[in-house]
Design a protein that fits this description.
single chain; 198 residues; globular; binds inosine 5'-triphosphate; binds sodium ion; nucleotide metabolism; metal-binding; RdgB/HAM1
């Protein structure tokens, strides 16, 4: 069995390949379908953007499509970068530049005020049917500097108290066990056989 994930993010694609492998499902992403259009994320919430991405690609392909909209919400920055997480430091979507921007904005903010959380909304769209969504949230703190090289995005500066490490210092299975995406996937898991069949 195969499922299409409407993402161009290599970090997400890698995580979904591993998460869906646990259900015996192979993942295709927009990286495998370069001719499909780029979906402009005009929504104000993760949920709106996830639905927009999933429904647009489901319409184009006529198939069941799952999309992920996710991001980091930092309390000391009034919830930013939030839905703008991917392009916080500019349209080129540089993880490196985004991290530098967050660290600069948090300069002088003490450890106990650096609380943050990752959000993930997964939308499952099928042509002609109502789109379903599930959500996962992962609490943590923003470190003073980067630590670790695993994962993607803001993982090097997201400290997970459960492991006393940053997300970028965790093995993939460890990250999945606590991450926003892992939690959302486990909620989706109970719906998967019904959705995908078998
Ligand atoms: P697609 O829309 O093609 O899926 P995108 O990168 O534009 O890719 P989003 O709009 O959902 O996706 O932005 C999510 C951003 O939030 C992502 O680029 C990372 O910077 C960050 N992010 C999401 N999940 C993350 C994770 O597990 N670890 C670290 N950063 C994450
Ligand atoms: Na987004």
């Amino acid at each position: 069995k195969t499922v299409i994930i409407a993402t161009k993010n290599k970090g997400k694609a890698k995580e979904f390949s591993s998460l869906f492998a646990d259900y015996g499902i192979e993942v295709k992403t927009l990286l495998d379908y370069p001719l499909l259009p780029d979906v402009e994320e005009t929504g104000k919430t993760f949920e709106e953007n996830a639905i927009l991405k999933a429904e647009t690609i489901a319409e184009k392909t006529g198939k069941l499509v799952i999309a992920d909209d996710s991001g980091l919400s930092i309390d000391a920055l009034d919830g930013r970068p939030g839905v703008y997480s991917a392009r916080y430091a500019g349209a080129e979507k540089s993880d490196e530049a985004n991290i530098e921007k967050v660290l600069a904005e948090l300069k002088g903010v003490p450890a106990d005020k650096r609380t943050a959380r990752f959000h993930c909304v997964l939308a499952v769209a099928r042509p002609g049917e109502k789109t379903a969504t599930v959500t996962g949230v992962c609490e943590g703190k923003i470190t003073l500097a980067k630590q670790g090289t695993n994962g993607f995005g803001y993982d090097p500066i997201f400290f997970a108290e459960e492991f006393n490490k940053t997300m970028a210092e965790l093995k993939p299975e460890e990250k999945h066990s606590i991450s926003h995406r892992g939690q959302a996937m486990r909620k989706l898991g109970s719906m998967l056989s019904e959705l995908i069949g078998g």
